[in-house]
């Protein structure tokens, strides 16, 4: 059973400056909800009740968001405005939130290793909140992955096909399809040039990781951009044992980019109004 979900949330969000100068990118709203809340809702839908959030300087509002705001609650008590807080209150009742701070930005792999103190020795999920995943008729993307985990008990990354011109933005995998949409990874590389990419199967921000990943991350050398990459650690794990890549059912919006953010805003607005 996967019960904990890690949220790396220490990054600067430079692509959204100046909006993110004093506000965490995870708090940017899609319609009326911050990105991180969508992530927490997805984690809960997959059976995770423990949210482990790796924050950094300037990220206090994430903690405040998942806490009681006495003044506000007092103001709106008994009014129809209370309705607006229903969802986040439900999350606060159903989940626990723990935080640790990443002091230096040494990459996604380093952020995940920083979260070890909140995870311990068990398999866990990872959600990158700026990848917003929406499903219509299916279970949430993370719920699809935890289900797969029950059968295979190994690390799993979510993947989707992207244009070859886009592969240099992602971790890219190569593997052998062992059942429909499920690949056994035999190669993985972070942000390759299009000429060097092993496929167009790109990793998106949903992972299930077995805890031996921490030992691997401890000895993973800085890779692309001089950062410790989770992709490199997973490649090493795939060398030692089984790692799967799963072509999820649903739609993912790259809300770390302005185009993806606007697309997600429009799509969710229409959903809300229909
Ligand atoms: C990170 C990972 C990359 C992955 C991507 C998904 O990159 O390093 O492997 O494909 O998330 O969103 P980032 O977008 O943080 O540069």
Automatic annotation (TrEMBL):
Q: Which InterPro entries match?
A: GalU_uridylyltTrfase_bac/arc, NTP_transferase_dom, Nucleotide-diphossugar_trans
Domain spans labelled Nucleotidyl transferase? 9-268
Coiled-coil region(s): none
Instruction: State the function annotated in the UniProt record.
Output: May play a role in stationary phase survival.
Name the Enzyme Commission number(s) assigned to this protein.
2.7.7.9
Any Pfam family matching the protein = NTP_transferase
Q: Give the family from UniProt.
A: Belongs to the UDPGP type 2 family.
Q: Name one GO molecular function term.
A: UTP:glucose-1-phosphate uridylyltransferase activity
Provide the catalytic activity annotation.
alpha-D-glucose 1-phosphate + UTP + H(+) = UDP-alpha-D-glucose + diphosphate
Q: Which UniProt keywords apply?
A: Nucleotidyltransferase, Transferase
Q: What is this protein called?
A: UTP--glucose-1-phosphate uridylyltransferase
What domain of life does the native source organism fall in?
Bacteria
An example GO BP is: UDP-alpha-D-glucose metabolic process
- Name of encoding gene: galU
């Amino acid at each position: 059973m996967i019960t904990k979900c890690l949220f790396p949330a220490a990054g600067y969000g430079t692509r959204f400056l100046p909006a993110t100068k004093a506000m965490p990118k995870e708090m940017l709203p899609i319609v009326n909800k911050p990105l991180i809340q969508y992530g927490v809702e997805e984690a809960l839908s997959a059976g995770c009740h423990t949210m482990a959030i790796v924050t950094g300087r300037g990220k206090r509002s994430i903690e405040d968001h998942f806490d009681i705001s006495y003044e506000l609650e007092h103001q709106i008590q008994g009014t129809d405005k209370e309705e607006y807080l229903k969802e986040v209150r439900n999350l606060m009742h159903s989940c626990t939130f723990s935080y640790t701070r990443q002091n230096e930005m040494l990459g996604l792999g380093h952020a995940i290793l920083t979260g070890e103190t909140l995870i311990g020795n068990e398999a866990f999920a990872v959600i990158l909140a700026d990848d917003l995943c929406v499903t219509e008729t299916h279970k949430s993307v993370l719920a699809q992955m935890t289900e797969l985990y029950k059968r295979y008990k190994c690390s799993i990354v979510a993947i989707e096909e992207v244009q070859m011109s886009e592969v240099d933005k992602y971790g890219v995998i190569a593997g052998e399809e062992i059942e429909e949409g499920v690949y056994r990874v035999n190669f993985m590389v972070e942000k390759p040039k299009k000429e060097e990419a092993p496929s167009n199967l790109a990793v998106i921000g949903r992972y299930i990781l077995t805890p031996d990943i921490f030992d691997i991350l401890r000895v993973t050398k800085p890779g692309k951009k001089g950062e410790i990459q989770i992709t490199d650690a997973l490649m090493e794990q795939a060398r030692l044992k089984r790692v799967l890549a799963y072509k999820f059912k649903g739609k993912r919006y790259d809300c770390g980019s302005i185009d993806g953010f606007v697309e997600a805003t429009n799509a969710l607005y229409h959903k809300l109004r229909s």
